[in-house]
Automatic annotation (TrEMBL):
NCBIfam families: HEQRo_perm_3TM (TIGR01726). This is Amino acid ABC transporter membrane protein, PAAT family. It is found in: Cell membrane. Residues 58-250 form the ABC transmembrane type-1 domain. It comes from Lentzea waywayandensis. It is a multi-pass membrane protein. Belongs to the binding-protein-dependent transport system permease family. HisMQ subfamily. One of its GO terms (cellular component) is ATP-binding cassette (ABC) transporter complex. Keywords: Amino-acid transport, Cell membrane, Membrane, Transmembrane, Transmembrane helix, Transport. The keyword Amino-acid biosynthesis does not apply. One of its GO terms (molecular function) is transmembrane transporter activity. InterPro entries: AA_ABC_transptr_permease_3TM, ArtM/GltK/GlnP/TcyL/YhdX-like, MetI-like, MetI-like_sf. It holds the Pfam family BPD_transp_1.
Amino acid sequence: MALSKRKRAEYFRYSQYTLLVVIALVIAFLADWEQIRTAFFNFKTMGDMFPNVITIALKNTLIYTALGFAFGLALGLVLALMKLSSIAPYRWIATVYIEFFRGIPALLVFIGLAFGVPLAFQIQFDIYSTVMLALGIVGAAYMAETIRAGIQAVPKGQVEAARSLGMSQGRAMITIVIPQAFRIILPPLTNELILLTKDSSLIYIIGLARDQYELTKFGRETLSRSPSLTPILVVGLCYLIITLPLGYLSRYLERRSGGKKVSVL
């Protein structure tokens, strides 16, 4: 007797579960757990990393990310408004900026600010300014497109209603359109914050004092003195402490907004 489509799907699902259990058991039996423990779970190394991995590295990562995000959000808003402007040169400038900084690695921006600008213009940025500008310049190119798409997603009737009440175009944009746009784009902006958190590790190319280390730099320095890869594991867990709550926040905000998404192409 032929099986129904529902039964076939059910048997297929159970076979996949069985296969995954078998693979897990094979790995469990074949793995050298003592070697894994030695390589990744050196508790003495873990103890030596605390509390500095939290009070210095994690704290600095959060500060660097916040600075870059704040600057990038402000610049991204300006670029988004320029791209939507009726003045063609503003649109051209915004488009060139966005395409350029979306197309080059963030590492090049760090190198340019840390070494190129002082050499060419005799301007020396401190560590916080360098991180804020580098992360913000790159982040703004992505956030500008997200903000632009959010503004365009606001129904035009909102602007028309505001104009009928005597509001100017600028006031309607600031008080009506932009607040609604930001409610729409909060999930993608949260994802951009996650990306900036990881990009903050690029600061390793700049000479840092020990109290300026972020997570990756702190992990690299500790790894050079460690007999195992435990520092990499600890640093990875610290990144997860930051990014996992942000990921859950992004999904929560997306559900709150009804799953509405914007196109940034």
